[in-house]
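Operator note (shift B, R.M.): manual run for Putative MFS transporter requested after the automated queue skipped it. Running by hand, logging everything below so the morning shift can see what happened. Input copied straight from the record, untouched. If output looks odd, do not overwrite the archive copy; leave it for review.
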Amino acid sequence: MTAAPKAVPLDDAIDRLGLGRFQWRLLAICGLTWAADAMEVLLMGFALPGISAAFGLERGSADATWLLTATFAGMLVGAVFWGWLADRVGRRAVFLTTVALGVVFGLLGAFAPTVALLVLARFLTGFALGGTLPVDYAMMAEFVPTAWRGRFLVYLESFWALGTILVAALAWWLSALFEPPEAWRWLLALAALPGVIGLLARLGVPDSPRSLLVRGRDAEARAALERVARANGTALPDAPLAAPPPAPRATPAALFAGGLRRRTALLALVWFGLSLGYYGIFSWLPSYLRAQGLELGAVYRTTLLLALAQIPGYVLAAYLVERIGRRPTLVGYLAVSALGAYFFLLAGTPGAVLVTSAGLSFALLGAWGALYAYTPELFPTPLRTTGMGFVSGMARLASVLSPSVGALLLTGRLGAALSLFAGCFALAAACAWAIGVETRGRRLPETVGSPVPENGA
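Run finished. Output pasted below as returned.
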């Protein structure tokens, strides 16, 4: 009698299938949606001058703050809800639903006849956008071979810079074609359209084989891997896939049990601190530059230059996460961001403001790239999107608070605002180091309670 072939661990199967056309196509598909999300998230900073002119809003008014806050508030609720749902029903269903809803609600905002309805439309848009973050990064982490995973997760985050460039360029172009009270509606409508292309492209992506295995759907997991093999021109081993040991259905409470408790709490503080500082500065930066006397076209051109400064930050982060590791890369970028906030405070000329804000843009987006590479590798498969949803929900909580804090930039309390933001970056750096785990070159944990080596051992 011939012995049955030994079951192959899923990581071994994915590593044998190698890096090829499937992963690059998945990066392009998720990246397109991520760029579209960046456009939607940053949109109100560019649209607010026109909306204020159309509805007679005063600078720094409660309505203006609500408009900047609504998208983030929706993302707070959406990140937690969609992340939990994706671990329950699978990645693909949420992968498609959130993008479709984002397009619908984004377009509705362009036709809103009142500020109240516009705030509601932006909240619902944010609710949909909140689901793309945990699902996209889980999908990417679960399909890419171990040796390339960190680099690809940074590559995916780098599409944020593309979205920033597109929304700044679009706002600049529309400002030349229409008066501000009319241009903002075109801006909201056109910014929603890339999501349609992303939705159509996503229809051909299978569900994550890791998620399928955890839910006992072995045949579908194998079929998903066979699609990867065909796309990459490789062969899937004939042996069956090693299914994870049976375990009780994981609940969000498991994020705060055992060894995950400390890790989840520290990650939440990192996401909160980085988000409060980043959005506190950049959601109000167009209005701050406008208040300094720049005309609207110059504001958009300056924002475009700051977006271009993000690209080398991502490129260096993609190299460093595989060269020196996720944790030291993240801590280093956060420390530079804290220093950069003070350099921005000391800038006394328009040229110095541009240089220091470009340096901040470089450092902060490099930090985001390292954080997005690090976080999904710290959660086990049954809790990966739940964990991503929770920590990104903490970031959205900070995003809700950031417009109120960032308004200090417009009221002349620049020192207080930037000192607070620098403190947030420093605290985030300390928490990231305290996690004590390096995931570079390590396989993803598959079960709740999977041991993860401490101190990078």
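Quick read of the result: Residues 10-237+252-434 form a domain with the Growth Hormone; Chain: A; fold (CATH 1.20.1250.20). The chain is about 75% helix and 0% strand.
Leaving this for review. - R.M.
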